[in-house]
Amino acid sequence: MVESSRTGSRVRERRLSQGMRQTELARAVGISPSYLNLIEHNRRRIGGKTLLDLAAALEVEPALLSEGAEATLIAGLREVLEHRETPEDAVEGIEEFATRFPGWAELVVEVFRDQQGLETTVKALTDRLAHDPHLADSLHEVLSVVTAIRSTAAILADTRSLEAEWQQRFHRNINEDSQRLAEGAEALVKYLDAAPEAETSMKLPQDELEAFVEAHDYHFPAIETGGADAIEEVLQADGTLRSATALKLAQDLLQLYAEDARRVPLEPLVGAVGDTGVSPQDLAARFGVDPARMLRRLAALPAHVTGPTGLVGCDGSGAITLHKPLEGFEVPRMTGACPLWPLFRVLGQPGAPMRARLRHAGRDDPAVVAMAASQTVQPVRFNEPPLLRAYMLVIPHDGADHADPAEEVGKSCRVCPRQACHARREPSVVKDGF
Amino acid sequence: MGKTVLLIEDEPNIIEAVSFILSRDGWQVKTHSNGHDAMEAIRRTAPQLVILDVMLPGRSGFDILGEMRADDALAEMPVLMLTARGQTKDREFAERAGASRFMTKPFSNADVLDAVRGLVES
Predict the structure, then answer these.
(1) Fewer CB within 10 A of the end CB, N or C, for chain B?
(2) Among A297, A207, A221, A288, which residue's Cα sits nearest to residue A256?
(3) Is residue A217 part of a domain?
(4) Number of domains in chain B
(5) Domain range holding A183?
(6) Can you give the pTM of this predicted structure?
(7) Does residue A235 sit within a domain?
(8) Which residue of B has its CA nearest to A177?
(9) Sequential DSSP letters for A54-106
(10) Are residues B85 and A155, on separate chains, in Cβ contact within 8 Å?
(11) What is the spatial distance between Cα A408 and Cα A253, in angstroms, rounded to a whole number?
């Protein structure tokens, strides 16, 4: 993949900063110096064992080599590509662009985000005209009165020799109607002025929620000790949530969090993880909760207990409802994600959790372990098909297991290089260069 | 016997104005102002033409039109629909429901007369 071709440059930078010679490093990882030279000049793509070995020898996280500090930026740019018909050279130049012109790249991503926010606002306003019953009623009222006035005025103006009685009557009607019209127009203006929540930010509520989850690393000590009563306190102390919609989303999320924390209290869970490790199956059984709840609960533990974890939640339509990001496992924001993810597969097998080792296709990202389970939305009603939600816990895969290679999945179709994929729903803008 | 038109509309001053211009044009105008028992009024009056507002208290004009078209005795009766929302969606809806003609508020008196004359002639 051309887009990941700067891994070599990072190896070189890291080696030089460690004061290590090329021959030294090559010997340490068991490759020839000339091969290392090719790698360092981005002439050979590396991944898998070589990458891990180099990272170990350079005493650095593999992810830092495969994706540098500009990783977030690149992820943002990829997202832009997902929403645009993009010329191929733009796709290929993405990493170089982010590295050489980080300021410009950031601007592109920012402009794109602003535009998405505006699109949502426009859509909300359009919906409003079509679906807001109050607005429709007000307009109907105003138009009705205008019709009456127009018709009456025309009669007064056009009818020659109108009887005095009729004339009086129509004058009175016009007078009445003009008052109603004035009131109606005023009410309408007031309504339009006051409406919709004057949001200070153009970000999508879902973006705000994700930023909120990320800022707290999906761990809320106040709720761990104070339960649901502490929700208001957490929300008030938080400065990232601006829009009323995002606030509501966060409230729902924290309700669920509080319930999870009540059913599986922090201290016993930390102790149990010490015994079994991050094993949702054993832990769910031990605490008598369903696996989906345990997955969420494990994602809520601080990193010093479980190591880094990511969490993705979705509803039955596949819409992402909850996302705690994990570096190296990207989740698309607006477009649908890859249907091969266990997250979506468990929607089709309620009650049967799934565990898989995954790797994003065509990327140098390290493999992850993904564990997913679905859960029925309570309350369950008789004779109604259950509503499902699914959750997927993602943790880095420690150690390379070459005997059992990770399954390749995509991020979303538009940026996925897997060519022959039976799950593909639209063509990719990425051509696999290898 | 004069031609009878039944005007089903809930805005009193529209009723008055439209009644006036249609009676000046030689029509006998009957009026009705709610949706609940509009069907009864139509059957009782047996007009040559119905002018039907879409937004009526009690029942929507589309509903009433639908029932008329399903009734053999009323299926052919010309119906002029009135609505305040001139959206294409409403127009399509009215056409599908079987309206003979469609008029958007605010209309002019001349529009009303043209529409009514046109419907009776055809």
Answers:
(1) N
(2) A297
(3) no
(4) 1
(5) 132-194
(6) 0.53
(7) no
(8) B13
(9) HHHHTTS-HHHHHS-TTHHHHHHHHHHHHTS---HHHHHTHHHHHHH-HHHHH
(10) no
(11) 31
> In whole angstroms, what is the distance from residue A284 CA to residue A269 CA?
10
* Strands A368-376 vs A354-360: parallel, antiparallel or unpaired: antiparallel
DSSP class of residue A287 equals: H
- Per the structure, the complete domain to which residue B17 belongs is given by 3-121
How many CA atoms lie within 13 Å of A399's alpha carbon, on the beta-carbon side? Answer: 3
Give residues 89 to 118 of B whose Cβ lies within 8 Å of A: 105-109, 112
Q: Locate tokens 């191929």: which residue?
A: A88
Query: Would you give per-residue pLDDT tens digits along chain A (434 residues)?
Result: 334 457 888 888 888 888 889 999 999 998 999 889 988 887 877 767 888 888 889 888 776 776 654 676 777 888 888 777 767 777 777 777 877 777 788 888 888 888 888 887 777 776 666 666 677 777 878 888 999 999 999 999 988 888 899 999 999 999 999 998 988 888 888 777 765 554 444 567 888 888 899 889 999 999 999 999 999 999 988 877 878 888 999 999 999 999 999 999 999 999 999 998 899 999 999 999 999 999 999 999 998 899 899 999 999 998 899 999 988 788 887 678 999 999 999 999 888 999 999 888 876 667 889 999 999 988 888 998 889 999 999 998 876 555 567 888 988 887 788 878 899 888 876 654 33
* Shortest alpha-carbon distance between residue A166 and chain B (Å): 9
> How far B67 CA sits from the closest chain A CA (Å)?
24
User: Is residue A292 assigned to a domain?
Assistant: no
Element (H, E) at B90: helix B88-97
Choose the closest CB to B84 out of A139, A154, A158.
Answer: A139
Looking at this protein, which amino acid is placed at residue A84? R
> Which CATH number do you get for residue B87?
3.40.50.2300
What ipTM was estimated for this complex?
A: 0.87
Asked if B106's CB is within 8 angstroms of A146's CB, the reply is yes
- Domain tally, chain A: 3
Looking at the domain assignment, is residue A268 inside a domain? no
Q: Determine whether the interchain pair B109/A154 forms a contact, defined as Cβ–Cβ distance below 8 Å.
A: yes
Token look-up 């602003």 returns A114
Q: How far apart are CA B51 and CA B80, in angstroms?
A: 5
